[in-house]
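Illustration: Chemotaxis protein CheW.
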Amino acid sequence: MAKQNARADALSLLLFTLRSGKLMAINLLKVSEIIPCPALTKLPESHPHVKGVATLRGHPLSVIDLSRAIGERPLADPNAGCLIVTEISRSRQGLHVQAVSRIVHCLSTDIKPPPYGAGKQSFITGVTRVDNTLVQVLDIEKVIHGIAPAPVESPASGLSVEDASLLAAANILVVDDSNVALQQSVHTLRNLGIECRTARSAKDAIGILLELQGTAQEINVIVSDIEMSEMDGYAFTRSLRESPDFQHVYVLLHTSLDSAMSSEKATQAGANAILTKFSSPELTDCLVVAARAVVFAER
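Result:
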């Protein structure tokens, strides 16, 4: 299986700065708009990283003090700056930043994993270079999870005996470069009494696939993030479909983006299904469908 020849996908990043001036980035597909910082209403007993609530076209918008949320110094003028309004993982929020720099276009292969030693406390999922300047890609899922962790409902009681048996027979690999998102999926599976393999990159996932090939633990269902450094979920899926050994593996692309927006590209890449993060019951339903497809394909 070719590890390095996957076609790269185009990616647009919005660059912004905090007080330190270092460049950070967020996938432009996660951004709905950029606005000057409006007047905020502070809510009692709110999380200390939530600056307050703004009203945007008649709807409330929680505003996150991004500097505090990722352990940086607060902005010199707490009332200046602007808001990056994001829509990810079924939620909408404003990120208060110092300034927005510009939009740059690159390839998914241009995004490299965080430097060794960045640690679990890091709020970045990758790094790249723009005009020879290091740019850190924000792990927005981790920021939001630290403020309002997504509830992970236990769906086990609703599973039929047949569905539970199907899931137990599947060998599942979860691939995600965000540790928060990875653990959410793993927790859902463990609530179902199912253990799975995990990987933090497509490269690591390919290694696991090759290692288990031909064994009783051979992977037949993959749950993969789309936005990953070096090789994204689309390229990873295409590489599987181009390999005779892995072209029949069931692939569920699990994304923090609106899945309707990404569904065409997912289909073109060869994915079996796509799902927006994060709903434990919906992930369970998708995994049951995947396990059923795998069982029928093996008969």
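Reading the tokens back as a structure: The chain has two domains: 10-147, 156-298.
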